[in-house]
# Entry
Amino acid sequence: MTGHVHRDDFGARLGMWLFLVTEMVLFGGLFIGYSYMRYRYPAEFHHGGSELNATLGIINTLVLLTSSLTVVLAIVAIQRSEKKRAMACLGATLILGLTFLVIKAFEWGAKFHHGLYPNSPHLATLPPGEQVFYGLYFTMTGLHGVHVIVGLAVLGVMLWWVATDRVRQDRYVHLENSGLYWHLVDVIWIFLLPLFYLAA
Amino acid sequence: MSTHAATAQPSYLVDTGTRKGLVAWLTTTDHKRIGLLYLYSMMTFFFVAVGIGFVMRLVQLTTFQKLITAQTYNALFTVHGVIMIFLFVVPGLPAIFGNFFLPILIGAKDVSFPRLNLASWYFFMAGAILAVLSLFTGGGAPDTGWTFYAPFSLKTGTNVSLAVFAAFILGFSSMLTGINFITTIHRLRAPGMQWFRMPLMCWALYSTAWIQLLATPILAITLALVILERFFGIGIFDPAKGGDPLLYQHLFWIYSHPAVYIMILPAMGAISEILPTFAKRPIFGYKAIAFSSMSIAGVGSLVWAHHMFTSGMSGTALMLFSLLTMIVAVPSAIKVFNWVSTLYKGSIDFQPPLLFALTFIFLFCIGGLTGVMQGALAINVHIHDTYFIVGHFHYVMFGGTGMALFAALLYWFPKMWGKMYSKKAIYLSWFPMFIGFNMLYFGMMILGMMGMPRRYYVHLPQFHTMHVITTVGSWFLILGLLMFFGALLYAIFKGEKAEDNPWGGVTLEWTIPSPPPLENFEEIPTITRGPYHFEQEGK
Amino acid sequence: MSEHAEHAAEHPGYGTFIRIWVILLILTGCLVGVSHLGQTAAVWGLLTLTPLKAGLVFYYFMHLKYEGPLLKIVVLVTLGTLLIFFALLFSDVAFR
# Structure
């Protein structure tokens, strides 16, 4: 329809926030499941947490926090019509996001190498609580990883749109919404760090 | 008639763009056309599921058990449930009438995100097609019941993964519709359309949309965990790996109980539209109905574990959830009392939509009150997983949501197609429908009290008479449905032209031509008063 | 209506966000430090510092500070709902 010329930036942000509501509840369900299981198996979760590489978890936290900063700085830059700086910030975010994934891949790879993956013969020999711990670990970090990949794809498009002036000083709600998504991914990681890596 | 004479805009049913015919419909972003797309697709699925229900009843006349094996019977009740719940009752009213009428009722040209709206329909269709595919591929049709309870759903060789994935995608469609409606109500109300000037349908859709947002993701993650379990064996619900099937039940019902309110709230909204129009009097207790919608949405999200009273939960949880369950009856009763008070001393114009609205109130009261019965722990243990439950929820789902959907269809039919159906044919269809309905589902409740467990392929001889009665009831019911939809289909093609305001309604949809023009309003109206303002009429 | 409040006339600058980022890094450090002090301290750290960090991201990075009340209410309703789900679930788990 051609009639709809009016633009509703607040409406767009409201829609994005409502979408984030569904994301929060989606992960919320997993967090509820986590607390249910941790309550049942406190010792096993403690032991499981000590097996994880806390250093990698902490480094990844720093990486994601910084990438969140660069996204928000990109918005400031767009508001000030500093296109080059905005692109640099978004580029930095993409690199940091990829770094996160690479570190994550090494971490998972090491676990797989030690025979720790869902349904593995080694895992079956562990006590039930630890099997659940690893089940949750792979599910939650995996689902988070999927969100990181989606976020990177969206931010990649945003970089393209900034470059081609589809996102500019008077029209940047798409960038804002993509940023909101990325921050939510960051917030989820903020919770995953103490729940898994610092659980020991 | 006081029509807006000589509108410049063509009707939304006429193709105006470069695209024509089916392509124009499949690429439309017009909320009215999307509403109709939902209507046509849902009605198709509805009749498939009705057919399955018909066969299930036949199986209970034991002569037909040569044709249907026990395994097929398991698949039948699963598929009947999945289609009815996820493809018809949950999305039914919001997706059809919410899409079609929400923007018109608040004086907007369209929803906030029209393209997302079309995408929701495609998600819906994708989910529907996957659900159908799951019947014929993999290890055969799923046989878990629509609840997909772990650990059986994790172990069965049938095609649970695809069916569960289909429900996942349908949930996505439902959430996107919810996002769209909330944003639309917040942002696109016409000037002067304050919150308490909105028709009650909008309040109902608003509360529904919030439950869709806050509960559906829990279903999504639960079903995702079932799929992950089946493919990778992550073990969260598998007792052999330290998991807990009770966690599955909790997570499943955290969504699926609120889903009951996703189903019934828009139905209540539609009834609140219909009654004032035919009583020619403002609705009694507007704010009470509006707030009871919100409180049903709120409290209704906190009662899920009453599906699990025999699962071995803690005593504390049993008592807490029993109490909370009783509390939901309060806002529901507020609505019923207000509806009845609306009719009191009104100048009642008895028309088909009113007949079905009253049927809704009658059947919903039976469904609701038997629900309160089951909230009591002692009774629940006795009738848990019996035909009593099946009868009860059909009273709520079909007698409630289904009848309200029919009432809404009758009410808005002349507006949607600009045609009028034969009222005589509709009245005629009501008798077999009503009689068959009560024979079928009240019979089921009696069977349940006698001890007939649900989902059983065979039954003991002492239940046979009641099974025959309910089965015959199902024939009447289906006859009524066929007559009803036959009359409506005939009217779409051959019906008389309808007036712009055949019922004398006063909400915004009756101020525009039938069928509505492309952008609903020539000029966005300015609202200066509440929704049900009947001037002097009937005094 | 207040929900029509658009973006504040002036946008916050680079400095605000960089300061928040530094605070977030410090809080992460505290969280890691606290987790080495023993189980009780670790749990308390989890329960206080983590929501604080998340709150800062929500409030500043996600611009909630600069939005009208509607979006704040949306977030609070969501978190409240999750909290109630959690509490009701534990009425079962904790007393089983």
